[in-house]
Amino acid sequence: MQKTITMHNDTTENTTANTAKDTTDNTLTITPESPWLAPLAGWSDLPFRLLCKEEGAKVTCTEMISAKGLVYGGKHTEVLLATCPEDSPVVAQIFGAEHDFMAKGVALLQKKGFQHFDVNVGCSVAKVVKTGAGAALLKDIPNLLKIAEHVIKQVHNPDCKDFDDFGNFGNREDFHEGENPILCNSDGEDFYEGENPILQRKMSFSPSNSPFPEKATKNINTKQCATDSTRNEENKEGIRAGKIGFKIRLGYEMGNDVYIDLAKELEALGADWITLHPRYAKQSFSGVPNYEALTKLKSTIKIPVIASGDLFTAQDGVRILLETGVDGVMYARGAMSNPVIFKEHVLLWNYAQENKLKPSEIPHINDLMPKTTENMRNDLGKLIERHLTYAKEFNPHRALLQMRTIVPRYVKHLENAKALRLAIIACRTHEELKSVLETYFGESL
Ligand SMILES: Cc1cc2nc3c(=O)[nH]c(=O)nc-3n(C[C@H](O)[C@H](O)[C@H](O)COP(=O)(O)O)c2cc1C
User: I want to staple 116 with a disulfide (CB 3.0 to 4.6 A). Which of 2, 89, 242, 354 is the partner?
Assistant: First the structure.
């Protein structure tokens, strides 16, 4: 861990000029100095969320969760639901194409203890789009608004149960778990289950041999919610009303912008925030994000706007906040390579405020706080060890495979990274991994 970096004090939240409207929830903060961890399929699981929280993420998002998987009790879905009190505040991201599945999916997540939600309207992976979910909803606004109406109602009023609770969800046989994909690889390319070592492990998971300890889900209703806003009392089932956002793109394809009108409609329906990744779905991750669209969106709606897209460093995040006036940012690939990005963000944001910097004057964190290679290595060694500890604690069966995917990303910029990466990928046991890491990181472990 970076010793030179100190965590921003919670009490300073909501004090900056650029502060978003209060989301009326004490724990779900959307402000410039409260960076979020983006939803990341195959990546933002409980261990990674906990690590990012420790590294200064104010709010974290789960991997996208299939509404159908929830309703039909898909095995892939079950593994995504692990949480614990320390995971709070967490936003559960849900995807689907049918309003009744989506509302019921939210209700099931509420029963599991999740209070806040996000609807995926941006995933452009073929497997998702072909089901009418994710970015496909940008091509069917009436259906998207129907979904929005139902899920917003369910989140804001958990007792409404605006879906057919007695079935009418079609035939489970129609649901193939293969439809619940891990989205893309770290470079944003489509990514198929067979190629994903993490998911291959997921496929061998079953509730009876759940790698998640019971404690992971048991306490959440009481402890997590006790720290949440008092906006609504718990209902008989221990469920509280929460907040809901929508993560959208500019439109499905170039020349077909929907984001402004869509955001206005969602706001009118009661959405609590909008996250915009300012690219078209057809672009996937290519081209340059249109950050001006964030400025335009921010000046159009009153609910908070969160920016996502090519925020690879804290410098990028702080610059975009100042440039566009959005309320908050979420880090995705930036956090996958460097979970410390959240602390760096808070430091840079404060530095920019104190020194009244313009967007173009924001320094890179390494220029602000230069570190020796030795320090960098030590910090990284400790970070990897903590990630491994969480991964082993919460998901012992997946930990090794996960670390074989995750660690190479962390060490990419280090000396001898290629050799280290190859050695890590070749590890077959925890002992082998430990020995490789010890050889490389030495005493820092
Ligand atoms: C591996 C990976 C998985 C992702 N999974 C999700 C997801 O489950 N839900 C979602 O809304 N976006 C997902 N995204 C998109 C990110 O949340 C984010 O919007 C996008 O990567 C742009 O941010 P970045 O350029 O800073 O990485 C994913 C991106 C990556 C790279």
Answer: 242
